[in-house]
Design brief:
This protein has about 160 residues and is an alpha+beta fold. The protein has helices at about 10-20, 20-30, 40-50, 95-105, 120-125; strands spanning about 1-5, 55-60, 65-75, 80-85, 110-115, 130-140, 145-155. The chain has five helices and seven strands.
């Protein structure tokens, strides 16, 4: 069963271990330039947790910490972002977590960015009613290259 709860300090160790997976970093594309730098990771997460405009939750599957999901406001609409431990990809956890999170974070429109080749993430967002509103290109540190991103929105 997938559930969400407030982030606890001990969750950060799990999030950090998830970030070390090279394949997950490739799919996320916009992660840390050096995912093994714990100092940068801790600083980044402290900024997230200290921002009153950011809603962040730990994703649990049968009580196990498997990822995080958040909405931050970096412009004219909040944006949703999530990370799931690769060992749990394909289990429906992300789909369930996004649905629960959208029940909690009700401001609309809400947006998401996904690298164009991250088909699974795009499908999850589309399942919850997100539609493509544009495309952009950006440098992805985890890939060391410019990638195409799809911008999706839920109204």
């Amino acid at each position: 069963m997938t559930t969400l709860r407030a982030v606890e300090a001990t969750d950060l160790d799990e999030f950090f271990s998830h970030q070390l997976d090279p394949r997950a970093n490739h799919m996320a594309a916009f992660g840390a330039k050096n995912p093994s730098d714990r100092g940068v990771f801790d600083h980044h997460w402290q900024d997230i947790l200290d921002d009153p405009k950011t809603t962040v939750r730990t994703i649990l599957s049968d009580g196990e910490v498997v990822g995080s999901i958040l909405a931050y406001n970096d412009g004219d609409a909040p944006e949703i972002s999530y990370w799931i431990d690769r060992s749990h990809w394909g289990e429906g956890i992300t789909t369930a977590a996004v649905g629960q999170f959208l029940d909690e974070v009700t401001e609309r429109p809400i947006r998401a960015h996904a690298v164009a080749d991250n088909v699974s993430s795009i499908r999850i967002l589309e399942r919850w009613g997100f539609t493509e509103i544009g495309r952009t290109q950006g440098f992805a540190p985890a890939r060391g290259a410019v990638v195409e991103e799809i911008i999706l929105e839920l109204r």
